[in-house]
Amino acid sequence: QVQLVESGGGLVQAGGSLRLSCAASGRSFTMAWFRQAPGREREFVASINWGGSSTYYADSAKGRFTISRDNAKITVYLQMNSLKPEDTAVYYCAGSEYVAASDSMARYRYWGQGTQVTVSS
Hints:
Blueprint: E1 4-7, E2 10-13, E3 18-24, E4 30-36, E5 43-48, E6 55-57, E7 65-70, E8 75-80, E9 89-96, E10 110-111, E11 115-120
Parallel strand pairs: 2-11
Antiparallel strand pairs: 1-3, 3-8, 4-5, 4-9, 5-6, 7-8, 9-10, 9-11
């Protein structure tokens, strides 16, 4: 059974940094991060293909967030810098059996339980 386990969330001041991790059990996938703020729909943040050669970012993440992966550990990371209060959300890791990185939630079959990120002003 596939499991995705996120870690690394927490409370940080605006302008600070956090690194989220997502460990996958079983096998590797194209991976992505999504987030959901209170009262809002879940939205795409960043994705990376299986080999790590292709990444894709939401406009809100470009220039501040970096997605990467370590296939030996079957782990994907999201380095978040210059955090803003509007980045406050539950961040979810997702795994897709499609080859290409994508921003479409419909392509992601496997989901983690989420990790809370809170950015104070």
